[in-house]
Design a protein that fits this description.
two-stranded antiparallel ribbon, 333 residues, 11 helices, 8 strands, 2 domains, alpha+beta
Length: 333
């Protein structure tokens, strides 16, 4: 890459590699949570199949629904338990990578632990979002059963309603996992940046350049804010820390001489081809060996990537080859 030394390029590659691995781990957790949701669906269907709902009295139906509420709450508690160990690992890895890239000091363990304890998603604690999804699932399940009975539907028709609810529960749960990981990763990065910033330090926002970027994030791509005061630099948009919304794929970086050089000299992948901008996962992967590309993306996706048929969304969505928590810890411990 013009203007970037091999040593600086290595720093960029290491930073992107960490981000890729964290997203791959998010994919692993999402798959585990989906397995739980599928088990929940089967258990709910089994409870409904124990008798003919159309012949049940109101009291019996209410008793059954109270029991299913407990089942749903239990599965969502187990989903949170799967995700819980990920938080501290992601915080530690992301903070260490950022500190290494900036040649800066790490925040204290107390600060990093607080990031996990006080994790907020769209202003609410992560645990509150899990409770909300569980409550919504219970509400929709009860409504589907009662509506099916009221309309004289067959058991199979009611089962179909429950399947639709389980599908929605799966989508909501995986979105929450992804958003939690992105929020944790970005919070750790910002903590390192803020701990090593002065009044002149700046932070730059990077969005994915494809057709899926939202109206919140697209206007912020490439804009800067003062790291400490969060004052806009050369624009009027208020500061927001990624993840800005559910399923947000944006991130921030400290504006350093290296970052500046990359943004001036690098090429940036978009859904319509390579445009001027900063280094992305696509550009990074192009420099790696086929074996490494296979390991990160999975063989099939890597073949599509090398054939030029994969988009930037595919590269950053975390849907490549999953990586477990133990593998992640072993790689970065």
């Amino acid at each position: 890459m013009p203007g970037i030394s091999p040593t600086e390029l290595e720093k960029i590659d290491k930073a992107i590699n960490v981000s890729l691995d964290l997203l791959r781990h998010s994919s692993h957790v999402e798959a585990s949570v989906l397995e739980l949701i599928e088990a929940m669906r089967k258990e709910l269907i089994a409870k409904l199949a124990t008798g003919d709902l159309t012949n049940w009295g109101k009291a019996r139906i209410n008793t059954m629904l109270r029991e299913t509420n407990l089942v749903i709450a239990d599965y969502y508690s187990r989903a949170q338990a799967i995700l819980a160990p990920t938080y501290s690992t992601v915080v530690g890895i992301s903070a260490a990578q950022t500190a290494t890239t900036l040649a800066a000091s790490m925040p204290s363990k107390t600060v990093l632990d607080a990031l996990v304890t006080n994790l907020l998603i769209e202003g609410s604690p992560a645990r509150a979002w899990w409770s909300k999804i569980a409550g919504d699932t219970s509400f929709r399940f009860a409504a589907a059963v009662r509506q099916g009975i009221a309309q004289g539907e067959t058991m199979n028709q009611i089962f179909s309603r429950v399947n639709d609810i389980a599908d929605m529960a799966g989508r909501n749960s995986t979105a929450l996992v992804h958003t939690s990981v992105m929020q944790t990763m970005n919070s750790a990065r910002m903590a390192v940046q803020e701990a090593n910033a002065d009044n002149d330090s700046e932070t730059v926002w990077l969005s994915a350049l494809d057709s899926h970027v939202c109206r919140i994030c697209a206007p912020r791509d490439g804009l800067r804010w003062k790291t400490l005061s969060k004052r806009p630099v050369g624009h009027s948009l208020a500061w927001m820390q990624p993840a800005a919304h559910f399923s947000c794929r944006c991130t921030t970086y400290a504006m350093t001489p290296l970052t500046e050089a990359v943004m001036k000299a690098g090429g940036r992948a978009s859904s319509s081809g390579v445009v001027k901008g900063s280094t992305t996962f696509a550009q990074y992967l192009a420099r790696q060996t086929p074996a490494f590309q296979d390991e990160v993306l999975g063989k099939g996706r890597a073949d599509l990537y090398r054939a030029g048929k994969i988009t930037l969304r595919d590269l950053v969505s975390g849907r490549g080859a999953p990586i477990s928590l133990k593998e992640l810890q072993r790689k970065y411990a």
